[in-house]
Amino acid sequence: MKKTASATIAALQIEYSLVSRSVEADILPALRRLGIALVAYGVFSRGLLTGHAPSRESAARGDIRAYFPRFQGENLTRNQEWIARLREIAQRKGITVAQLAAAWVLSRGSDIIPLVGARRRDQLAESLKSFEISLSPDELAAIESAVPQDSVAGDRYGPEQMLALDSERLRGTSKSAQ
Fold first, then answer.
1. What percent of the chain has pLDDT over 90?
2. Which residues have C-beta within 8 Å of that of residue 21, sequence separation ≥ 6?
C-alpha cells in the first residue's frame, strides 16, 4: 500500500475588515465547519480605517493606495462620512478608530486572528491595545449601524485585480462588476 502525504490546513489568510466583509457569507462558515482559523489581513483597509487616506502629494511619492477606488474622488468623500461616524463611537469609548476597527474584528470570533502592520512603534502599541478592548452588544450594533455591510464606496482594487480574486469574483460582489 502506497502512503500518501497529508497536511492539515490550520488557517486561511484573507482580507477581512469592517468594510471588507464578503467572506462572512460563504468562506467564514466553511472555515468554521472545517475547524480552520481565519487570519484577517487588511484589518485597517489600507489605512482607510485609521484616518490616514493618501493625498495627491503621497500619490506622487508612490503611495499605491491613491490608485485604489476606495481612495479616489467621490468614493473617498463618501467613505469619510462613515469614518466620521466611527470616530464618534471611538471617541465615546476613549479609543482610536483603528483600535475600534481591530476590536471589531477581534469580536467576530476566537477563530479570527487579525494581522496588523505597523511602520512605527507607536502604531504597534496602538494596535496591541485593541486586544484589551471589549465591545458591548450595543457598541457592536452602533458600529454596524455606522458602517452597514457593503456601504463602502469603491472596490478594494481596480476592476482587473478584482476579477482575479476568487473570493469576490465567484460571489459577484465586486462593485466594478455590478
1. 41
2. 149, 150
